Amino acid sequence: MIRNTLMAAAAAIAFAAPAAAQDFAITNATLATGDGSDPIEGATIVVRNGRVDAAGAGVTVPAGVPTLDGTGSWVTPGLFATVTDLGLWDVGAVSESNDTRAGDSPFSAALDVAPAINPQSQHVKVSRAGGITRAAVATMPSSSIFGGQGAIIDTGDDPDPIVRARAFQVVALGEGGARRAGGSRVSAHALFRNALREARQYGADSRISGTASRPPEQRTGDDMPLDPRLVDNRTERGDDVLLSRFDAAALVPVVTGAQKLYVMVERAADIRAVLALRDEFPNLDLVLVGASEGWLVAHAIAAANVPVIADALDDLPESFEQLGATQSNIGRMVRAGVKVALNASAMEQPRYLPQFAGNLVALTELPGADGLSWGQAFAAISSVPAQISGMGTGAGTLSPGAMGDIVVWDGDPLEVSSTPVKVYIDGIEQPLENHQTRLAERYRDLDESDLPKAYDW
Amino acid sequence: MNRTIRMALCAGAASLMLGACASTGATEPDSTPAARETRADDGSVPFASTYERYPGAPTALVGATIYDGTGGEIRGGTVLFADGKVVGIGDASLAIPEGYTRIDGRGKFVTPGIIDIHSHLGDYPTPSVDAHSDGNEATSPTTPEVWAEHSVWPQDPGFSRALANGGVTSLQILPGSANLMGGRSVTLKNVPSRTVQGMKFPGAPYGFKMACGENPKRVYGGRGRMPSTRMGNFAVNRQTWLDAKDYAEGDRDKRDLAKETLAGVLDGDILVHNHCYRADEMALVMDMAKEMGYRVTAFHHAVESYKIGDLLRENDVCSAVWADWYGFKMEAYDGIPENAALIHNQGACVVIHSDSENGIQRLNQEAAKAQAAGRRLGIDIPDHDVIGWITLNAAKAMGIDGMTGSLERGKMADVVLWNGDPLSVYSRPEKVWVDGALLYDALDRKRRPVSDFELGQPGEGDVK
């Protein structure tokens, strides 16, 4: 067994070329498994063939597996960021570099982020360095109440970021949806119902506008069947008014429940209206996003078994749909039995996820507030968002067989002073350098006595 | 001070200007810049502060770790305050006078009240509806005539969150950055009030908001008018300063709101707070200030200050920065988490600011993140110095450091008792005093402000 001190001499470990998953083990670390339980001290993790083999106290490292001494460090599953725009932009205000919205697009629900995602984006790299190994990526509703189809990605340093394309559809049904639907919630709900009825009819009817019968289903290799009408033009719809053929087809898996529907909604009354949609469309696989006033309807959300991707620290009445916003929102929903993940789009950058989760732990010390235990808070940025994203227990946990997404931290991962020192995705150690780290190295001093800074690289 | 004397002091060469009229140094608690302020015809100061401290019990915080804001640290120390002022600070041997309420601070931490040098609370209040959008008079690239205090809505619920969650006791409200010259700022005590005058920090100098870079040229270039380029930005600024110098060097008899503010800057009475991201642009702005005979007190946002820490040190200009915002616009592309630590390491002044109704609730955490980023680069900055980034350094750059920003005898009793290390994510303010008055107590659900707007709404009086 090769032994080394992880923090001091990790570079000395003889890991092979970065493109290949290597078996490895880390011992004597503080282990957070991501399943909601408390951290385990003096624990061991074994990763083999790109997957978690075993993790916990008293785990034995099989002979021949290179082992790092994790004394003083924490080991966790990679963070799962949802919802994000990672890989869709370079500079926010440089519109040509920014694919997060398409206000002038003729399409809405049919938009599919997968082909646009750039795994070499600096924001992907920065997030990876922050311990984020997987993320849900979506475009926000812009030309319509529908934002299009989001994907699940990994943040690995490789050309293939897509874990699952078209994993979910996004719709806005609060103030934002009202604005995009023509000016009122009334219109947004009418537009939504019209769209889903069209999709239901479309899905049921193999002969629309007198064209050919439905061809055999095609699969694209991932879990989501590609609707055949997305790849050919044999069907025509002559009476499109609000929804193009392409958009209607994209909503077929939503109405059948094959694809999750992420509903952006804040106000308690709006949440109730969304939950009631199942009376009309019973197969909807709903996920609430935002839900600032979720605590006011927490029992109804729990009873409907609808998970929530919630804004963690919103506590101001930013709008009239968020009058009840409080940092205790998530704590109260979790206490009522709701499955809640932290919304990464409700913070400046996805790498703030651990900080926001840590703030929820701090609330447990504040009289009258409702927070999360450490284990719950960490789960809300790892296993819970992974489950909501349809990954089961295969991501965001250290369960045997889970993806080998492992982060080694130099301290408590929820503490603002801590940072990842190693990140593995599918068992492959990842580079943590990016534009920011290169700038920091260049300007560590301002010495230009020999040459300008431009030669310092 | 009459105008003749002011001219003699401040209208000389640029080098003299920097010496004679620098205004970021300590302001004596009783000094009043009012003598040179804009005056009404009857000689009164317009919109004068009506703030008076609220009653408070003489209080002894005992046994806590104290960061005094100046870099001092006392473990198991005692802080005494009474009648609105800090009476004493010391270790466990400090005698507690008769009549003081003792508060057990063991396991807890005490800091000066947190100060945010860059806020738009009240000017861009929540709810963030168009009717509340009062922070940018974006109808002309130079609007030195506007005063931020005339836009402040004292009922903004954001003030209470900054107090309860952030321990913020003083803050500067700035106009936005659409304009090259956005107008006067106002410094407030974070005290609920029916009027903005009731929040104004007595004796605080005014600030003057300027902005370089993308915003002004985008806003006005987009309308087909000057400036549409960075060189246009400088041309408009320089001509405006030249016109202001003409006014300032004249008899100033005819009142002119814009010129009064610019003359106040040239006099050194009004402190320039310049929104600026890029290092090269900050260097140009510092030269423009020398050319025109004024001084930049602080660059705000300043994501590239780390590239010119030496220049900023030599020019004695503070950088008010976020911990790690970057990338949202081209001029923010090179923002790095190590910025604050690298500036500090060059011996230049660091202030952590929020520019956000959310960030203002966590300035302590932002400071801790910036500190940790430095440590990873091998720059070790002690906790007691990092606390200065959100207390005394901010006070210095706002010209109120003679009155607040540190726990020193005779200063305002603006004090936060934290339930743990303020540089930890797990800590929160437990009690916050402003001028010795207890205005927030986590252990007393009624001791928290609730704005008019929130009465009768879902969650009224909630912990938020």
List keywords for this structure.
heterodimer, A: alpha/beta, Urease, subunit C, domain 1, TIM Barrel, eight-stranded mixed β-sheet, 23% helix, B: 464 residues, alpha/beta, six-stranded mixed β-sheet, 12 helices, 17 strands, globular, disordered N terminus, Metallo-dep_Hydrolases_sf (chain A), Metal-dep_hydrolase_composite (chain A)
Describe this protein's structure:
The complex is a heterodimer of chains A (457) and B (464). With 457 residues, chain A is of the alpha/beta class. Chain A folds into two domains: 6-77 and 407-433, Urease, subunit C, domain 1 (Roll); 161-394, Metal-dependent hydrolases (TIM Barrel, Alpha-Beta Barrel). Chain A is 23% helix and 20% strand. In chain A, the strands form two sheets. In chain A, strands 1, 2, 3, 4, 5, 14, 15 and 16 form an eight-stranded mixed beta sheet that branches. With 464 residues, chain B is α/β, with parallel strands linked by helices. Chain B has a single domain, classed as TIM Barrel (Alpha-Beta Barrel), CATH 3.20.20.140. Chain B has twelve helices and 17 strands. Chain B has helices at residues 3-10, 14-20, 158-164, 214-221, 230-249, 257-267, 279-292, 309-315, 339-345, 363-376, 383-388, 392-398, and strands at 59-67, 73-82, 85-90, 101-104, 109-112, 114-119, 168-173, 181-184, 186-189, 207-211, 271-276, 296-301, 318-321, 350-352, 415-418, 429-434, 437-441. In chain B, the strands form three sheets. In chain B, strands 1, 2, 3, 4, 5, 15, 16 and 17 form an eight-stranded mixed beta sheet that branches. In chain B, helix 5 crosses helix 6 and helix 9 (339-345) packs across helix 10. At the A-B interface, helix 11 and helix 14 of A face helix 10 of B.
